[in-house]
Structure formats: C-alpha cells, structure tokens
Amino acid sequence: MTAALQVAASGDPIVVQGVDHFYGAGALRKQILFDVSVRIAAGEIVILTGPSGSGKTTLLTLMGALRSVQSGSVEILGQELNGASASRAAKVRQDIGYIFQSHNLLSALNATQNVQMALRLHREWSRGEIRKRARDMLESVGLADRLGNYPRQLSGGQRQRVAIARALAARPRIILADEPTASLDKQSGREVVTLMQNLAKRDGVTVLLVTHDNRILDIADRIIHLEDGRVHSLTSAVTANTQRMMELLAEQTRRGDLGRHVAGLPEDEFRDVLEKATAECQQFLEVVEMSQNEAFEGMLSQMLDIFTQKIVDIMGAERAALFLVDAGREQFYAKVATAGSSEHAPEIRVPLTSGIVGRVYQTG
Ligand code: ADP
Ligand code: MG
User: Atom 13 of ligand 1 has which residue's CA nearest to it?
Assistant: First the structure.
C-alpha cells in the first residue's frame, strides 16, 4: 500500500535515490558510485557528463536493468529494480531503447532486419506490422534508400542511425544512450543527436544520454555531471547554464553593464569581484573545455579590458598591465590600460618560450 502510494506520488520515469555501487570482491572491492540520486521527468532529455571512469556507464546500466542494484533505490517507470525478479527486470527492459557507442548491429542482417529484431519482442504485433514499423522508422532517420543495406555497406553515421531506429521502433518510453557519438565525426555526431532529440520530443520519450562530447551539450534540457562516482551539483549547475551564459555574455550590452558596475565599486569589493570572476572562469573552462571558443574569448577580453581599467583607477596609475598565460597557445598575454582612456585596452601577445617573459614563466 505504502509502496503503491509512493509510486503514484513520484510519477517520474527515472528516480534514483542513494545508490552506491561496488565492483570486485574482498580486498579488490572498490566503490564506484557514491550516494547517487537523480530524478528525470517524462519527456526530459538529460545529458550525463563526466570524465572517463567516473561511473557513467555503471549508472546507465543500473537504470537500464542491465545490472543488479546493490544498494539504494532505482525506480524505473514505477518499478523498483533493487531486489526485482528477473522477469520484472525483463519487463522493464521492454520499455527501454538502448543505444551504445558501437552500434551493435548484427552484420548478417540488413538495416530493416536489424530493426525488426528489436520488434520481435512485441508478440502482439503481426509480421506485416513489424516490417512496416521498421521501414517507417528507418525512413524517419533518413535511411529510406538504405533499407536493404548491410552494416558493412553503411557509414558510421548511417549505422548509428540504424541503431537509433532500432531503439525507437519498439516505442520505448525511455532511451538510454551511452556515448552514441563517440565513433562519429563532428557532423554525423551532431546529426545523430539532433535526430534523437527530434524523435524523442515527437514521441514524448525520456532520454538519458551519456557523453563527454562538449559539442552536443546544447540538446539537453538538463546536464548532470558525475565525478569520481558522485553527482557534482556545483559543476552541473555551471554546465547546465553554459548555453544560457554564453548567450548572455555574447550580448553587446554586457560590456556596458559590467563596466558601469565595476567602475562604481570600492577597492575591496572589486577585489572580491576579481576573485570570483577568476574562479568562475576557471570552473567554466574546466567544465566545458572551451578555452578556444570564440564567444568565450570575446567575453574574456572585454572583462579584462574592464578590470585593467579599474586597476588603473584604483592605483591612480598612468598605465596598468594585466598579465596572463594562455597555455593553449603557448603565449604570454598582456592587457594594457591607460588612465582616462575608455578605449579598448591594447593586447600584447608574446611566445612563452622566448626572452624575459619566457624565463619568468619557466622559473616563476
Ligand atoms: P565511465 O562510463 O564513466 O567511463 P564506468 O562506469 O565504465 O565509467 O567505470 C567506472 C569505474 O568502474 C572504472 O574505474 C572502471 O574501471 C570500473 N569498472 C567498470 N566496469 C567494471 C567491471 N565490470 N568490473 C570491475 N570494474 C569495473
Ligand atoms: Mg562509459
């Protein structure tokens, strides 16, 4: 009775609470997931990011009823998987479409037959229905002219699209995708996730997509970041807001706003702002690895203009220079501001390997 009420109350298709997971036994026993809690709403597209080895695949396979839950609660479509019987787990798997890094197509079967395989589980559909459904699905992933092709006759992107068709054809309520773009080039990767996004939104499917491909983060409604087996709330908040933040920062009005704000600050408050900005930029760069991103560089350059100007004011100096190391380009980077000038501070870039600059960089 209580359990039934809880299920009715939560309603979300994926509810993970307080999950720990261990691999190995005895002295080799090692904890991989630590008190992981995640809740995903119906129709939501969530991206799970995190460094290699952080436990993403482990978490995904627990949610997919492909691995036994050891501790904590994993409730999928209202079914508790901790302690679930094999038949209940199998029932849950029927409502999940899986897409893996390597497409896992059967090489002896053509595209249509590969998709049909996944539909056989649905005993209520006739052969004719299954064939039609497979074809329709391949059409919606843009492979209408490839129905009879075998995996070896298809490109990486096309194979992954067959895998998507196969995962979606059975009308799953949840899609679990583990690095589906890992083996694809930039453009096919983008096409594949956009397709997944469109189909998921069309059919109201809940999607959990594991990736460390920063280029596709924008398709997510929400981003969850896993690090060393723990859900990282701060980092995930930063990541989740990346897209919005980039848009905000790109706005031209931004420079004026920040400039006015900083100009009016007393010295101690300015120091706080400076520290906070440094920390935020660092966090941001670590999370999204986009130090070479144009929008970010533009924003950074504007921020440095403003800060350098402020330093001139505070110190009552004629000129001030702000020095940074651009490790990516192996350059020493300086911004110079002059008192009374509101023009953009000139920028100086010198290779890190030469002259006094190089010596200072190498020796500290
Ligand atoms: P990710 O998908 O984020 O790269 P995984 O969930 O695959 O991480 O792995 C998390 C950690 O668990 C890694 O250190 C990995 O070596 C270890 N691991 C994964 N699968 C097994 C297994 N079957 N047996 C023992 N250790 C495993
Ligand atoms: Mg993995």
Answer: 53
